[in-house]
Amino acid sequence: MRYLPLTKDDRAAMLAKIGVRDADALFRDVPQSAHVERSAFDLPDTQGELDVERALSRMAAKNVAAGSVPFFCGAGAYRHHVPAAVDHLIQRSEFLTSYTPYQPEIAQGTLQYLFEFQTQVALLTGMEVANASLYDGSTATAEAVLMAQRVTKRSKAILSGGLHPHYAESVETVANLSGEVARAPVLPGREEDLIRVIDNKTACVVVQSPDMFGLVRNLKPIADAAHAKGALLIAVVTEAVSFGLLEPPGSQGADIVAAEGQSIGNGLNFGGPYVGLFATREKFIRQMPGRLSGETVDAAGKRGFVLTLSTREQHIRREKATSNICTNSGLCCLAFTIHLSLLGENGLTKLARLNHARASALAERLSRVRGVELVTPTFFNEFTLKLPKPASAVVDALAEKGIIAGVPASRLWPHDHHLRDLLIVAVTETSSDEDCDAFVKALAEVL
User: Fold this and answer.
1) pLDDT score at 79
2) pLDDT of residue 105 exceeding 60
3) CATH fold for domain 84-340
4) Which CATH number does 68-81+345-446 carry?
């Protein structure tokens, strides 16, 4: 009864009060096609805690940890070194136990690091204002599209084919309710002609740079074309370390920047939690989702911090909110802020240059392997290879040799058969010379 405190009589009383016969009646709106018979799961009804721990430990042992073998996966989630100081500092009690800063007089520490975080994000992206973060890069992108629809009072969103497909699906899930979402074709290593399809009904154009295949995009022509039609440019970044080397989106004409901040301060963590970065122009600040922490002075003239804008659904009436996202991934954005503070501007630039140098060196070596072609001519720390056979089979063969070689494009676009020979490879400062040597040797053997 430790985890299931209600008795049969308790449940019967609750069902009677609600007015339904059994618990299944609560799910009557779920289509029958989505139902699964209990017998389909090979699981015991009950099991002791020690037995559960043993069973789960056996399952976990089948996984290969990212740091235990040569690892070259990216595609929106990147393995970087996180200093031990980051984990130590975020676990201080004043950070770990703090929650929503509704009362500024007892939440100055939380409000201050949110203010510092916003300042960092604005500087990195080249924008004027940033919010106190969102769930992750995909929800930040979806919120950016909703914001553009409100600003322009238009409904059409054009998504670049190089946008992460999970981000595109998030946009379609959220923004399809309020307008039209159109995806451009997926053209690995090339810039699709987005300018031609922008019209007077377009609210925004969403472009990722570096894109899903690693290609670094020139956003200026697209921004100019969008602005000429009264539309906004939303720039998406999945690799935050690239801010240390590439020209920021704000300098290229972006109106909104939506990014994933996982690369700085946050480990892979089996896919989450991550932290969404969101920045925009000051003139759009009233339509920006989430929270904005601001600086002020108290009655004694001392520096202090408050929630300047709180346009989330808990703060005002639901239908008036700019967003219903209910968290700012506070601990993750704190980790981001601490790591970036430890690096400093010079440290971030050095880290970015190291990533690019290692990726360039490995790309050159891999492209010399017989039958391998480098698809992306300009990249940061991620590039795409065209292999002489399906990439998924090659990845499986390399995994047998103890090398996690990257992400087959077919995993992300399973129905696009022209992408099945493409392998997306990411190289970071954690990729050692020995790791790269092993990758080149093993790939030649497998092919």
Assistant:
1) 97
2) yes
3) Aspartate Aminotransferase; domain 2 (3.40.640)
4) 3.90.1150.10
